[in-house]
Design brief:
Layout (H helix, E strand, L loop, with lengths): L2 H26 L5 H53 L1 H4 L4 H16 L18 H16 L6 H21 L5 H43 L1
Length: about 220
């Protein structure tokens, strides 16, 4: 049934209902003439259709919202599981209470505290066998050996000492492309600062991972 056929069908049904209701009103309500009975039938059917239409629309909107929330919950849960995989070592030595509190905190951040989202699924705390722990410890130790610690304070001062004079010189110049040169130098300095911060964070995280794995190994060995 195409759109026009559906319209014609609906109009036909409404016409039949209007005729039946008109007869009922005319025969049971003495205060109505045939004409007023039809007007009253039209009015009652209009109210009925509008109420049912609003109900159907509200129901469809509620169903669509529920489906959207279910899909969001699935996406958020996958994101939570990804975080758990990436932070596996962090969870190994936690108590069950600490683990679930940390997951609650991560879930809250992922969902942005959306109150419409159902509570998170329960996930078991990650565990490793002794062989898996030894293998992972070897990998982390190798990465740590290839990562150099940095003194953030001194390296930051060195980078600023390198770039700041260049920035000051450009500011004092009359170069036609002065804004571009300033932007480039500032960007290079910022990238250099972020690079050493990343290197420092990587070293600290690897060192902590090694300590956590050694502690975990001592518990299961």
């Amino acid at each position: 049934m195409n759109k026009q056929e559906q319209i014609d069908f609906n109009n036909g049904v409404r016409a039949v209902l209007t005729d039946l209701l008109t007869r009922q009103i005319a025969s049971t309500e003495s205060n109505h003439t045939p004409i007023s009975a039809r007007d009253e039938a039209d009015r009652r059917l209009k109210v009925l259709f509008e109420a049912n239409t609003a109900k159907v629309i509200a129901q469809r909107e509620a169903e669509a919202k529920a489906l959207e929330l279910r899909e969001l919950h699935k996406e958020f849960d996958l994101e939570l599981q990804e975080v758990m995989r990436n932070r596996l070592i962090d969870f190994l030595n936690m108590t069950d209470k600490e683990f679930n509190q940390e997951l609650d905190s991560i879930w809250s951040a992922i969902t942005d505290d959306n109150q419409d989202i159902k509570p998170r699924k329960q996930h078991g705390q990650p565990k490793l066998t002794e062989a898996q722990t030894i293998e992972l410890l070897a990998q982390v130790s190798q990465k740590l050996a290839n990562t150099h610690d940095v003194d953030l304070v001194s390296r930051t001062e060195e980078i600023k000492a390198l770039y700041q004079p260049q920035i000051d010189s450009i500011k004092a110049s009359n170069a036609p492309n002065k804004p571009l040169l300033l932007s480039q130098r500032k960007l290079h300095m910022q990238q250099a600062l972020e690079s050493i911060e990343y290197q420092k964070a990587t070293y600290v995280n690897l060192k902590q991972d090694k300590q956590n794995l050694m502690l975990y190994l001592s518990k299961i060995a």
